[in-house]
Protein: P-type Cu(2+) transporter
Amino acid sequence: MTLNSITPPPIQRCYHCDEPISQECQFHLEILGESRHLCCAGCEAVARLIVDNNLTNYYEHRTQTAQKSNIIPPNLQALQLYDHQDIQDDFVIENDQQHKQISLSVDGVSCAACAWLIEKQLKKQAGVITIEVNITTHRALLVWDAATVKLSDLLIIIHQLGYQAAPFEVDSQEQNYQQTMRHYLYKLGIAGIATMQIMMIAIALYFDVLDKHDNSFQNYLRWISLLIATPVLLYSALPFYRNAWRNIKTLSLGMDVPVSIALLFAYSASLYATITEQGEVFFESISMFTFFLLLGRFFEMRARRHAAAISANLLKLIPTMATLISGKKVAAKTLKKSDVVTILPGECLPADGIIVKGRTTINESMLTGESVAVQRTENDTVFAGTINVDGNISVRVMHDRKDSLISNIVRLQDHALYSKPQIALIADTVARYFVAAILVIALSTWLYWYIYRPQDALWITLAVLVATCPCALSLATPTAITCSTSSLGRLGLLVRRGHVLETLCKVNHVILDKTGTLTEGNVQLVTTKVFGQHSTADILMYAAELERYANHPIAKMFIPYQAKTALFDKVENVIGHGLSGTINQQQWRIGKYEFVSHNQSTHPPATNNQHLNDYSIWLSCNKRIIAAFKIEDPIRKDSKQLVNALKQQGMKVTMLTGDCSVNAQRVAQQLDIDHLQANMTPISKLNYLQKIPSTDISLMIGDGVNDAPVLAGAHLSIALSGGTDIAKSSADIVLLGDRLLPIIAARQLALRTRNIIHENLVWALGYNLIILPLAIIGLVAPYIAVIGMSTSSIIVVSNSLRLLK
Structure:
């Protein structure tokens, strides 16, 4: 064997950038379950960030290796990965061809000033459509133009402001929360231990336990206090400095600015007094300030977490694994449209779909708030997160996880939380100006006391800064709104817009649709009257073929009579009137009598006014009426209770329907509805709404296509879940269950929310107005000030949590 015949060892290449790896470089990292070789510390840092941020699917789907770059810092390089389409598929919703929407987790947001700062900076950027930050959930809703700006560019801006932003995931959010709480406990523990130690020393210094003539021992104890307080100032109080520095950098004012100033000034003055051996020290106040502030924030975070977790926890109902029809186990999040899965009794459904085999009962209480399981059989729609109670079923997947009903519910609830009502905007603005006023008042207080009693100037100023921090004012509204929105979700009411709670309190005129709203929408054919030579079977088939092109309870009634293939050409749906179609050059119409008869006064053979009153649906061919249909639609069991409850609350109740006056009058009499408008088209419904007195705050409840204009035009609107998509997209609230009484519960909850917000604001403002003059004149000690401020915040949050009960 010659030397030249020896095969050289293969060159190892970097798993991240595919560059050759030199023998001197030995970097390794476990990626996708295997140890991977990396060429340098930079690639290792980027790869580690990809793994830590749960973005390893980047390596599974990438079409080329990453480019090596030493210009962009590794943490910002990781953000650029969010621009990849395969990664965005897991988080991003496309509103249209260019606008994209994403829900972000934002760490470091502590008050309304933080939210205002992020929104202000991003709204300046070209391509940002909307950015709304919710300080209670620590989340942000971002809509941007992908053709104008990259997602990574916007995330980098948030990071440059000092906040950490990433796509929201329930599991990672839970991990971040636990990590944040653990760090708070470390800081809280150090501050608490230091406070106990320094307070023992302070007792000796302040209560003349030591010999006044022995200055050396007093100075020794001051130095010990300095050593104990320093870790508190430099480590435990870091969250306050970070928030304050963000505000100062961007010339905005947050609640941590006065707190940080108080802590740093007190420490600086105490350090000077210790070194020069003259003057007062405030080391015990520094430790106590920090301890009680952290304690208040800790309880506040736990309370806010409890309020915000309910809607997010819906996503946890979706199982992590699913069983394909072949028996193979796969991750539920990887299911795609048209996959078929099997679900055993007791299992949760992993995706939205249609039952293709079997029958069962489904517990949908997590979506609708109704505890009674519902029957489901072949061709019925079922939803992810619901529970299969007692049958073996096979389900064809219809939507990916991000497009599932439960994901849409969480997304729409979040959108409602981001949309701030007017009272919340006012409170945020007041809080920002209040901080500026506190700083001015504190400076004026220091100047006054420095002139007349300089030895007390510092501690009185500290008390003013801390006691009046507007933490409670900033939390008064958003926490209450988050709690009430979560409670509405448990009632089976999906809130889509932020003004719902505010407007629901003011409603005094309720407008109700009839078919599918006050009635079950389960329309049943009672009688078919034929005029002419056609058989009843043919008449039903022609009627069903025309109704094939409608989405209404009446159209569903005719489904069993449809032909195997469509018969009509050029079918036109005249909303509010009926349908017309052509077959063999014959024009057929089905719908209201006036529409079907082309407004002719001639009646069909053997008919009279009694027939016109008895029959609701008519069928004609070439302008000649050939059939009529008598239908019935059972009234919902709780319709009567709903109407009675609304009237007892002093509301005007009107039924607005496109049905004939005879049927409408019968339903109105059974439900004791005094105001009725029948034979209404979509346009006439909207005209009626526009003509009501300006003093009427209207609530429209409906479900059909013909209700969409009036749903959009009312002050507040509710669409039923069984209604059409256009009705639900026009409404402010979607009622997920079949019961109407949750609407009454929603109004009661809205009234409670308004009262609690007013209580919170009265308490927060009242506390500050009372404590401020007392602090200015020197009647509030610094430790009393911090206890009062922390207690005020906890009271406000705890009061809001009552809405969850």
Observations:
- Confidence is low (pLDDT under 50) at residues 1-6.
- The chain has six domains: 1-75, 90-168, 175-311+416-481+755-804, 322-403, 500-519+636-731, 524-632.
